[in-house]
Design brief:
Blueprint: E1 13-18, H1 29-35, E2 45-49, H2 59-73, E3 80-81, H3 92-105, E4 118-121, H4 127-144, E5 152-157, H5 160-172, E6 183-188, H6 190-197, H7 210-223, E7 226-229, H8 238-249, E8 255-258, H9 261-269, E9 278-283, E10 286-289, E11 291-293, E12 296-299, E13 304-309, E14 312-317, E15 320-324, H10 326-336, E16 337-340, H11 343-358, E17 364-374, E18 377-387, H12 389-408, H13 413-420, H14 422-430
Parallel strand pairs: 1-2, 1-8, 2-3, 4-5, 5-6, 6-7, 7-8, 12-17
Antiparallel strand pairs: 9-10, 9-16, 11-12, 13-14, 14-15, 17-18
């Protein structure tokens, strides 16, 4: 795995808020509210947005608002702070505006730079454009006497050029003509990407762009950066937001853009292991979580049925009917079910493997068992999963995420203890170390 260049190993939440709101007595009210977020409502990365979220006529005032709010509240904000400024690969005047505002915001005399972690650069193009932005960062650091590379740079992938540039990033890092080691986040911007690609859909909605998300996750992994998905703008569709995050996490993309504190809460919790384990059943192509009733996992639906006959069982899934004996039924249900381990389950398994490894054993079998009830017919199922060092390291990823959160977000310690219990939290912070 490529070495990470920043303190954070994972970023779950990327939360933007307008830097200046027109027609308000306090134009900075949105970023002032955001600066006061704590616990699960506070993002891992907060982005005072002086680009798309702020009207062009308000951006100079927005830059001053960033200075005022970050200098006053930034030291107490529990996440990282990375303002977004204007930039465009095809417009030198826009790039110059972004540079001037970064220069102003980071002036030590204004008191904000000590609480800033970096800047987000939108609308980048090819790798040479990334280098232009990086050079501005270097000039700013020299102008203000800041440590070289102290300002992290994140970019938003909003064009085909930027998508292709990710393939070149790893090779460019470390060359003497740039300081691209400062790269932190690679963030998808599907709206402008759709425009740049001239994409058309029948409804006018956004394509899902799974290829872009895969390429961003791959580019971030190769370059030692962190991948973040773009905004999910249907803020009431919590189920859809969860589905998007689950699909992303399977690609190695833990982070997602959050548009509201409510989305921040959902995204902060989503990649963490669940509090309770659960059994899932493939019900004719639809994954259904079984309900636990007095130690039995119960399916309550009409896509799967099970009947006990005199000489065996009849299992029907959709329109597929099978006549099975007891052993065949158990095998079939094992194929149709899967188990989602809880935090406690994962920690238990890791501790068991660590104990076995200390005793000189290279592999162990870990058993999962349940009684499954379909139409009142109960069937005991169990399977053994072989754990070796590779399995241990793969399963360790969600625990490493938890440990990163625990280390970097002390404001969430109480929430985590409420979610898992203090005993599980303590074990999870120590296992694997």
């Amino acid at each position: 795995m490529t070495e990470r260049r920043h303190q954070r190993t994972f970023v779950r939440t990327f939360f933007t808020s307008p830097t200046a709101v027109e027609g308000e007595d306090d134009s900075a009210k949105m970023i002032r509210r955001a600066a006061e977020l704590r616990g699960m409502q506070a993002p891992d990365v907060w982005v005072p947005d002086n680009e798309d979220a702020t009207a062009p006529s308000m951006r100079d005032e927005g830059a001053q608002n960033i200075i005022d709010v970050v200098s006053e509240h930034g030291a107490d904000f529990p996440g990282e702070i990375h303002p977004r400024v204007v930039w465009h690969r095809d417009d030198p005047s826009t790039r110059y505006q972004g540079f001037q505002r970064m220069l102003k915001i980071t002036d030590p005399e204004h008191g904000a730079v000590d609480n800033l972690d970096g800047f987000v650069i939108p609308e980048v193009g090819g790798i040479d454009d990334w280098k232009k932005a990086d050079e501005f960062f270097t000039i700013i650091e020299n102008e203000h006497g800041l440590e070289a590379g102290s300002l992290a740079m994140s970019v938003i992938i909003e064009s085909g050029e930027a998508e292709l540039a990710m393939r070149k990033l790893r090779d460019e890092m470390g060359k003497p003509d740039n300081n691209l080691e400062r790269m932190f986040l690679l963030v998808d911007g599907e709206v402008d990407y759709t425009k740049d690609m001239r994409a058309i859909t029948p409804t006018g909605g956004l394509p899902s762009w799974p290829e872009l998300r895969h390429n961003t996750a791959r580019g971030a992994s190769a370059a030692g950066c962190i991948a973040v998905d773009g905004p999910y703008d249907d803020i009431r569709d919590v189920e859809g937001y969860h589905e998007r995050m689950t699909a992303n996490q399977a690609k190695g993309m833990t982070g997602i853009w959050s548009l509201t504190p409510g989305q921040v809460v959902e995204a902060n919790k989503s990649p963490l292991p669940p509090e309770e384990g659960s059994w899932l059943l493939d019900a004719d192509g639809r994954e259904v979580e079984l309900e636990t009733e007095e130690g039995v996992e119960v399916y309550d639906g009409d896509r799967v049925s099970l009947e006990e006959t005199g000489d065996g069982y009849v299992l029907t899934v959709g329109s597929d009917e099978q006549h099975l004996d007891e052993a065949e039924l158990e095998d079939e249900l094992l194929d149709l079910t899967s188990y989602v381990p809880s935090m406690d389950d994962i920690v238990d398994s890791m501790e068991e493997f660590e104990t076995a490894k200390e005793a000189g054993r290279g592999a162990i079998a870990i058993t999962r068992a349940a009684t499954i009830s379909i139409d009142g017919v109960e069937v005991d199922v169990s399977n053994d999963r072989m754990w070796d060092e590779a399995t241990y390291q793969a399963v360790q990823t969600p625990i490493t995420l938890f440990q990163d959160v625990y280390e970097n977000r002390p404001d969430q310690h109480e929430d985590l203890a409420d979610l898992y219990s203090e005993d599980v939290v303590e074990r999870a912070t120590n296992v694997g170390n």
